[in-house]
Amino acid sequence: MRSFDVKPLASPRVLQRSRGFTLIELIGVLIIISLLLAAVAPLTIQLIQSQQQIKEKSYLPEIAQALRRGILSEQRFPFGDSSLTDAADAAAWWRMAARHGAGGENQVRYPRGSFAAGDLGRRLYLAKPAWEGKSFYEITGGENNWLSDVNDATELRLVLLSVADSDLPLPDSLTAAEFDQLWSTWVLGPTGDPSTGTLADYGLANAWKGRAAELNVQRIDLRDLLCRVVIENRRYLNALYDVDGNQRSEISITPQSFTSDSMPEFGTFNLQDARVQLDLTIENATDEVIVSGFLVLQAGRLIDEQETAGFVVSGQQVDTDGNVATARTDYTIYTNGDTDSRRAQLALLNPLDPEDLTPLGGWDVTDDSVQERYFLKSQELLLEAPTSGREVGIFVIERNYQTLRYDGLRWKY
Questions:
Q1: Is the full-model pTM beyond 0.85?
Q2: Which of 33, 158, 195, 311 is positioned for an S-S bond with 189, CB 3.0–4.6 A?
Q3: Which residue spans within 194-310 are E strands per DSSP?
């Protein structure tokens, strides 16, 4: 027969203890967990905020580049006030950035990716608030100087501000001094406030005290879009005039007649020492004249703006017997007065209205013939023929220090 070992059963007290923890033990565990959470939670929150800050700081340059592309492509500045609610406003900065590769509109406008109650979102500020929403054409068209200092175009700057926490307000607008402070001196000090000046100097409320490190500042410099163009626009012969200042359709020099619309393209004839018959309204006009110097100029030909007269017939009269007069006589055919000359016209093209062809100002005959004008990259100048006014070309502003020259007959660039 097999034998079996029989073990005694556990006592009831032992069975009762194996069923779970006592109330005192549970309370102890909960206390330990609470202490651990109290120690770990701030570190976890701080870690999350740090990750949000890192993500935000890496995303703001993407928005900045998208805005640069949009400004250059659309030739206009965005509206800087992010409190705008007009959904149809295509110039709103977050829509412009979204159109040019920064992501969706809400993603661009709000750090959390969508609107949340009390979330003011990111905000864009322009150094020149009056330029908000205006096109390049509206800013530069018809004006000689649209920058306060052409060598330091501080107007061409933008500042983008953001904060991950919605409880910290961003200013509705910035004064010029506050903008410059953010641009030039924004550095955090050891106390969590700006190292230079006060919060008010940067347009920030007292709520930011000790939390200025949560502010993200993205500077957007557009000064490299400024282009200096040297334009030489010489005065040209608008028509042919007689010695009395009356406009003439032709000047007849026997045996050839030159008219303002039939003269050869280059229209210059050197009649030095030639014996010609002048058909002009002057005394003894029927007499033969030895011409000592006479250039017949086509209308549209460049004139010398330093001379007192456009061109002059200078010579000695010869009578029918071949006797040459002792005295020389100068006959002024054309004078380069304000009413007798023109400058070629050029117009700044309006990208929002191609039919707007108002000539660019500052090119009257009394203005300097050589000027430095300042435009923004990608703007276009429509060039016109001097006499007919027809379009002859478009000059695209692509880089700094381009040159554009009208030599009296044609544009050269």
A1: no
A2: 195
A3: 216-221, 226-233, 235-237, 240-241, 247-248, 250-254, 256-259, 268-270, 275-279, 288-293, 295-297
